Amino acid sequence: MVKRNALGKGLGAIFTDLVDTASPKSPFIICGIEELRPNKFQPRRSFEEGGIKNLASSIKENGIIQPIIVRRAKEGYEIIAGERRWRAAQEAGLQEIPIIIREAADIHLAEISLIENIQREELNAIEESEAYHTLVKEFHLSHEEISHRVGKDRSTIANSLRLLKLPQKVKDAVIKKEISSGHARALLSLDSVSLQTQLLNDIIQKKLSVREAERAIKKMMSSHKEAGYRNKDENIKNLENVLSKKMMARVTIREKKRGGAIEIKFLSRNELDRIVHSLLSTLNE
């Protein structure tokens, strides 16, 4: 697979016309700090207070070295890149701030905000997932298109989006850094919110590693499966036994509120061929 290098190039290489502060056609100007407002597509929901204070101290000492990139809004300007600097400037008590004005469509605004934060590794796993979801929902981008734009494998994008299926309590735990994204991905193996919540509490209270959590999940799924079999209707159990003997393979019938599924297990390609041949022979009778 060809390795993408989009993130390594930096924002200036990806969106040269938007963030190239050295461009002679767009020198910076000074505006009132109150004229700026946050990017509506900013994926970051929280800004670490200590980091903002440290940056504010630097700004008090040295000023803002790099202007903030903005676009015109109905009132004032909307930040394209540099919200953290803007927040720190407010903390430092600045009344004015240097800006560079660019023309930017919404999709460029969303992309730049996402890429800028990914480059600095400032997003938690849920914020990153929500940013990808915005690109899918608002701008109808495919996983492949997002992969190309942000420089990450398509499978990484897909796995990230799966985290949004988790219950809010689990997502909150990721945001608060009580569990890692690895723990969260492991919890996706459980198809019950109650089981996910139960194991979440164990992970936090017992400080389980991802490997330990995965082992606990396997044990939990095995116990849950056995309990389900004990509670299964006797007629269904008998039917499973009859079909298993007929197919010479383990057959499981799963009932749901609407419909269900019949699962036939095989251990090798030869066994699969035998089962398929048997099924086709039965259908042709």
Question: Explain this structure to me?
Answer:
The protein has 285 residues and is α/β, with parallel strands linked by helices. The chain folds into 3 domains: 6-108, Conserved hypothetical protein from pyrococcus furiosus pfu- 392566-001, ParB domain (Alpha-Beta Complex); 166-227, no CATH class; 233-284, no CATH class. Helices cover 56% and strands 11% of the residues. It has 15 helices and 7 strands. It has helices spanning 6-9, 11-14, 16-19, 49-62, 83-91, 106-119, 125-139, 143-150, 154-162, 168-175, 181-187, 193-206, 210-230, 234-247, 269-284; strands spanning 29-32, 36-37, 68-72, 77-81, 96-101, 251-255, 260-264. The strands form 2 sheets. Strands 1-5-3-4-2 form a 5-stranded mixed sheet, with helices on both faces. Strands 6-7 form a two-stranded antiparallel ribbon. β6 and β7 form a beta hairpin. α7 (125-139) packs across α9, α8 (143-150) crosses α9 and α11 runs parallel beside α13 (210-230). The relative contact order is 0.08. The model is unreliable at 1-14 (pLDDT under 50).
Overall geometry: elongated
Low-confidence segments: 1-14
User: Would you tell me which CATH topology of the largest domain applies?
Assistant: Conserved hypothetical protein from pyrococcus furiosus pfu- 392566-001, ParB domain
Note the run of SSEs as H and E: HHHEEHEEHEHHHHHHHHHEEH
Termini gap: 47 Å
Biggest sheet, strands in spatial order? Answer: 1-5-3-4-2
Mean pLDDT: 81
What key phrases describe this protein's structure?
Conserved hypothetical protein from pyrococcus furiosus pfu- 392566-001, ParB domain; five-stranded mixed sheet; 285 residues; 15 helices; alpha/beta
